[in-house]
Write a structure and sequence with these properties.
Largest sheet: 2 strands, antiparallel
Distance between the termini: 34 Å
Number of strands: 2
Structural class: mainly alpha
Order of helices and strands: HHEHEHHHH
Number of domains: 1
Number of helices: 7
Length: 185
């Protein structure tokens, strides 16, 4: 994949912000946030990061221009909302030019499918890891990525599900059902 220096800064900023937002929503503003932050960097942060990189990868496979841009105002709003214990977050997106209707649907599908794949990897690792801390980390990874997949399949503009729904409704329903099942296990 091709990255600009500016894009790398945008990705790192959003990855760190997403991780902090999840950590604060989980434990509030206190010293525990420093203990939870590494777990969120691995689970929510990696889930967000690989979700966006999956979009970029598929777009570039179609020879489209694709670059991630963070949304500073949305990150700040997400941070403020996380103080209440809730997460509402739109950290940014991969902007794409040059995709046709079918390609755009497949590009959109790549993100939620990456989250499903990550959820399954975290689930498989739960049975392998030997310490309670690692087991708990894998549980968070499973749950967060399942929820990210389901959330992103919402069929309204600005969500990945909208582009997938417009492209292929059978694929949309199959992926939505899989995401919802994983999210609610």
């Amino acid at each position: 994949m091709k990255f600009s220096r500016f894009e790398i800064k945008e990705i790192v900023k959003a990855w760190l912000a997403v991780s902090v937002i999840f950590a604060i929503a989980m434990v509030g503003i206190n010293m525990k946030v420093f203990a939870v932050l590494p777990i969120m960097l691995i689970t929510a942060g990696i889930g967000f990061l690989l979700h966006e990189m999956a979009h970029k990868y598929v777009a570039q496979k179609y020879h489209c221009w694709a670059e991630f841009r963070s949304d500073g105002k949305a990150l700040l709003l997400g941070l403020l909302i996380s103080l209440t214990g809730f997460i509402i977050l739109a950290p940014g997106a991969v902007f794409i030019r040059g995709a046709n209707h079918k390609q755009h649907g497949k590009i959109a599908l790549a993100g939620p499918m990456m989250n499903l794949l990550l959820a399954l990897i975290f689930y498989a690792l739960m049975g392998i890891v030997a310490t309670p801390l690692l087991t708990e980390t894998m549980k968070y990874g499973f749950k967060i990525n399942g929820l990210l997949a389901a959330f992103n399949m919402i069929p309204f503009p600005m969500f990945d599900g909208y582009a997938v729904w417009r492209w292929n409704r059978v694929v949309y329903v199959i992926c939505l059902v899989a995401a919802v099942i994983v999210a609610f296990i």
